[in-house]
Amino acid sequence: MNKPRVLLKTFLFILLFIVIGLPFIPLVLSSLSFGWQWPHILPESFSFRAWEYVLIGSSGTWQAVWMSLLIALTVTAVNILLAVPAAIALVRHQLRVKWLWEAILFAPIVIPPFVAVMGIHLTFLRLGLTETIWGVVLAHISPTLPYMVRAVVISYSTLSVDWENQARMLGAGPVSRFYHVVLPHLLPGIAAGASLSVLISLSQYLITFIIGSGQVATLPILLFPFISGGDPAVASAYSLLFAGIAIVTLAVMDTVLKKYYQNKKAVIEKG
Fold first, then answer.
1. Whole-model pTM?
2. Tens-place pLDDT, residues 62-81
3. CA 163, 79, 159 angle in degrees (round to 5)?
């Protein structure tokens, strides 16, 4: 009985490695190469030149890492504050022309970013928000907010109105009902939306470049010149660093969420 299950797990692990892990092998080899010319399968020689430049020689790398994380986490926090009321309105209230509001909220998913960012850039020029961190943060909300709203709407749709009514009958006020009944139910959706928000914000190049005008340096801003400038070793090192930061950020968010549920479960068991 256990042998087929072990074989299935082994097959899934190998498949997962092929799909996710295998593409990283050329990046690792490229980042350690010193002259990898076609048609050679492996680099002719190896060097830590690219990693020395990225981690030590380039003074702007860690500032760009900090800036990328600051912008991504700020955008995610703003998205949560906007998405929860939007989800409540879409799920709990009978809105007129509801389809129109949904179309406006989810339009950035189908509209190319270049179309929106040009209008945003003209508006931000008048408001003095270009070349600023807050301007980039506000611009990143456009492509990230729809995913957060969608995730929270799905979670809110599974929350029964009876639960909130029972809390109201027991004397719980609006704030208490939201904190003890609604918020715990929305957390998985918020976590899923936050993960997408962080990943999308971290990967933004065009919006950051146009709105930041090159003055707001994030990892994609440092990465793209090396991709187009013909230094694949440094580009590969930056790509691996970018992927590592995204993975670590998502892992930290997952750990925090699990810790929250463990503490909540312990409180319930003690009560």
1. 0.82
2. 888 899 999 999 999 999 99
3. 15
